[in-house]
Write a structure and sequence with these properties.
Helix content is 41%, strand content 21%. The protein is of the alpha/beta class.
Length: 294
């Protein structure tokens, strides 16, 4: 790439930096992007760069494969019901150790290494997330649902220039700890912070249409129709529903992006093409890319 071409790439990012400076971006970090060394490092670089150019990233992470490995090592067979982990007391102890201990610490260290001052939290810290036992359906043990978010601790960290890294565990009013889906935690925190964007990193290209094509831009109305006719199915349904609920709660834009692509976060937020699907509220249609839709 020539110097002129490099300059063109940098200039392409300028309107997006200007548009999103000072805005909150809630990023759900999970999947293959957490497992491959080069992708972990690229993600940390992306978050650090977004922070340095004036945006306020908040990271919520998962850790399913790491929990599976730790649970098996402890002699416990993982059990799932409709994709949700059955969580007894022994499993909950492991979940908390892996999420709030090992994984959060690794993410914080990677962000700090690239110059973003990061702090690890769980939903229990400062009563950031208040939970209760999941209601309805089969009893999954210590699996929770969110009843409230208190973002004061995040506001305090943001005012001092820190990047929060949040593990998806939370307690109820009696101090019982629950395991909560990381996408849901990210969505609810995005609502509470009135975030500009909710970004979910996944192991897919994005949302696919009826012919298997990637849909770059998807309205809430079209998303609902594609779920109804079966085009959107399986594990993509809860991700879309998470995005739609966040949009109804005041988040301006939601993204489902391919975390297997190096620097996917920067490509989605700071370039014209992006690397996934952007979900917008309502039924308005506008061309891919962001500035036309912002």
């Amino acid at each position: 790439m020539t110097p002129a071409e490099q300059a063109t790439v940098l200039i392409e990012a300028l309107p997006y930096i200007r548009r999103f400076a000072g805005k909150v971006l809630v990023i759900k970090y999970g999947g293959h992007a957490m497992e491959a060394d080069e992708l972990r490092d690229a993600f940390a670089q992306d978050v650090a760069l977004l922070k340095y150019v004036g945006m306020n990233p908040v990271v919520v992470h998962g850790g399913g494969p790491q929990i599976d490995a730790a649970v098996k090592q402890a002699g416990i067979t993982p059990r799932f019901v409709r994709g949700m982990r059955v969580t007894d007391a022994a499993t909950m102890d492991i979940v908390e150790q892996v999420l709030a201990g090992k994984i959060s610490g690794e993410i914080v260290a990677a962000l700090n290494r690239h110059g973003a001052r990061a702090v690890g939290l769980s939903g229990k810290d400062g009563e950031l997330v208040v939970a209760r036992k999941r209601s309805g359906g089969e009893d999954l043990g210590l699996v929770g649902e969110i009843v409230g978010v208190n973002p004061e601790v995040l506001d305090a960290l943001d005012s001092r220039g820190f990047v929060p890294v949040i593990a998806p565990t939370a307690a109820d009013a009696h101090g019982t700890t629950y395991n909560i889906n990381a996408d849901v935690v990210a969505g609810k925190i995005a609502e509470a912070l009135r975030a500009e964007k909710l970004v979910l990193l996944t192991d897919t290209e994005g949302v696919k249409g009826r012919q298997g094509e990637l849909i770059p831009t998807l309205t809430a109305e079209d998303a609902t129709a594609l779920i109804a006719d079966g085009t959107i199915s399986g594990g993509m349904i809860p991700k879309i529903e998470c995005c739609l609920e966040a949009l109804r709660g005041g988040v301006r834009q939601a993204h489902i992006i391919d975390g297997r692509v190096r620097h996917a976060l920067l490509l989605e937020i700071l370039t014209n093409q992006g690397v996934g699907t952007e979900v917008l509220p309502g039924s308005r249609r506008s061309p891919r890319r962001r500035l036309a839709r912002a």
